[in-house]
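TL;DR need structure tokens for one chain.
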Amino acid sequence: MELRLRDRIREWVVPSFRPAYLKKQIKLHRSARISYVNNCDIGQYVYIGPNCFFNAEGGLKIGEGSIFAPEVVILTSSHAYDAGELLPYDIYDYSRPVIIGRGVWVGYRAMIVPGVEIGDGAVVAMGGVVTKNVEPGDIVGGNPAKVIGHRNQNDLERMLENKAYFHRKHWHKRPKKWLRIK
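>> reply
TL;DR here they are.
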């Protein structure tokens, strides 16, 4: 039997997260998933696209105005493969937080590994695998992600200061195709 949308949302959204989700005006596509929601801190005007998966076991902080395209994966923990008594990995995980700055754009099918920090206004190209920290305003892409360009620092600082985020300007109080939790 098909569950109603509201019931499906309640399955994966922790009740304590719902008020923050509505208050901060986060656009979370109905197919996106966040595990360990209590370890996740999301700023205002954040868009999380279809089929994104965020594992916040080790801690995840997302700055305001950030946008995540479809199928982005963020991991904050990984298996302990270099110690223990079992193969191919032990029962324990290594947890390291991921910090995403303000006004960051993460492209389609990008992946972010545990312990990475992405600076304000950075862009991660589609398919990029971010294994190292990204400086503010850098444009990175590839596997592993390397710097392929830079944003204009003066423009970036001005936009961050004025909170000139895409979803802040183009926000609708009652979007027709987005989730409404009662």
